[in-house]
Amino acid sequence: MSKNVSEKQEFNPAARRKARHYGMQALYQWQMTKDSVTEIELQFLADYDFAKVDVEYFHDIVHHVPANLEELEQAFTPHLDRTIEELDPIELALLRLGSYELVKRIDIPYKVVINEAVALAKKFGATDGHKYINGVLDKLAQDVRAIEIKAGS
After folding, report:
1. Residue 119's domain is classified under what CATH number?
2. What is the Cα–Cα distance from 13 to 52, expressed in whole angstroms?
3. Which of 27, 54, 59, 129 could disulfide-pair with 93, CB 3.0 to 4.6 Å?
4. What's the domain range around 93?
5. What's the whole-model pTM score?
6. What highest taxon heads this organism's lineage (predicted)?
7. How many domains does the chain have?
């Protein structure tokens, strides 16, 4: 990790958005290949320009989503209309990422989590996949962020 990784910076929404973008792709790769998350992370850091990416957050996504997989899937599964195995791989990666942010990263407003997941679904997912992602994450947010939602954040 050389020129692509800078010292800790102040929060930058665009850099965080790019970290989610690459993080979702890395999760998708992990799901499909079953390669180690460390291997995938190093591959992404070598292959892409991370100069304007929140590298710390990318690392967080790539390592903590798989580490908390069972808890995350238990959180969003009740809101599915099909089994996890029937989900599109992009939808699955996005639901895992969005669930991680809703459940484990309460520092990120729930509206930001949902909006970012929907934007990624529009970019990478099936035609109406973003609607499904929005619905599932919205229901999960009502479960795990009820106080924040009630407060009108």
Report:
1. 1.10.940.10
2. 11
3. 27
4. 13-145
5. 0.91
6. Bacteria
7. 1
